[in-house]
Amino acid sequence: MWCIKVACVAEPGALSVANAVETAYTLDTPAQSRGASSLQRGASLPIVLALTALLQVAALAQADTAWVALHTAGARHDRLVADAAAEAGLVLCTRWLQRGAIQVWPWQGAGEPAAWRAAGAFDDASAGAAPHAQRLAQTWPGARAAPQCLVEARPASVAPGAPPAQILLMTVRGVGMRRDTQRYLQQIWRLPGGAGGIDLQHALSAWRSVAAAPESVAPEAAAAPP
Q1: Which residue has the higher pLDDT, 215 or 22?
Q2: pLDDT tens across 50-59, in order?
Q3: pLDDT of residue 215
Q4: CA torsion sign, 107 to 109 to 114 to 120?
Q5: Which residues does residue 204 pair with via DSSP β-bridges, in sequence order?
Q6: How many CB atoms sit inside 10 A of residue 167's CB?
Q7: Distances from the Cα of 133 to the Cαs of 24, 149, 200, in angstroms?
Q8: Torsional class of 74: left (φ above 0), alpha (ψ -120 to 50), beta (otherwise)
Q9: 49 in a structural domain
Q10: How far are the Cα atoms of 22, 200, 223 from residue 111, in angstroms, in the given order?
Q11: What is the pLDDT, as a whole number, of residue 6?
Q12: What integer is the mean pLDDT of 148-157?
């Protein structure tokens, strides 16, 4: 082979050798590319599997979070229904008491009336001789049952020579859609005149909320009446 400046001319014998080398290189190149592609696919497979696993974990966590949020919202709504029923029941029971439309149970024990703490005092099946609550309506919107009210009375402690007085303890229970979602509210009245009549216009009252079911409230946890 001889060259002039930048141009090279191959001798006739060398041309066939160059063609053979070029042909061999051309034939070998696709095989090498296929081998490199196979290696790349093999290396990317663990990455794809890892990303898929991460996406599955994220989806499960999101679904669990959504379920917890839905359950929490349902429980909160149920408590709101029970709260509203108890508050409305307290107003209704006061009206019934003023009209004499609800029974007042005398408390024979010492201290604050506690018949409302007895198991079954707010169950309809417990109606009988024992003090029991009365339903204030047949049904209640959004609730499993209508609010109930139990009114108890005992003589009030007075100073020597003072006119007699009595204590009324009004307990109202509201429930939600679930039976175990309950709210207890109480109104305490101190009425002048003893047991001869009920005059709420001249009575002293106090309000409180009971945080637990009656069966689980300790007697000493109750607030003293006014």
Answers
A1: 215
A2: 888 888 888 8
A3: 65
A4: negative
A5: 190
A6: 20
A7: 102, 5, 20
A8: alpha
A9: no
A10: 112, 22, 11
A11: 43
A12: 91
Place of tokens 């309950």: 182
Residue 145 in domain: yes
pLDDT, tens digit, 9 for 90 and up, residues 10-27? 444 444 544 544 444 444
Q: Could you tell me if residue 155 is inside a domain?
A: yes
Distance of alpha carbon 200 from the chain centroid: 37
**Does the structure show a pLDDT above 80 at 66?**
no
8 A C-beta contact, residue 152 and residue 169: yes
- Counting every residue written for the chain, the total comes to 226
Place of tokens 């002048």: 192
Least Cα distance to 221 among 186, 178, 177, 179 occurs for 186
Domain residues for the domain of 101 are: 74-221
Beta strands per DSSP E along the chain? 2-4, 7-9, 104-106, 134-135, 148-155, 165-175, 182-192, 204-210
* In a domain? residue 68: no
Match 């000493």 to its residue by tokens.
220
Instruction: Please tell me the total count of domains within the chain.
Output: 1
- Is the CB of residue 150 less than 8 Å from the CB of residue 121? yes
Helix (H) or strand (E) holding 51: helix 12-99
pLDDT at 219 over 90: no
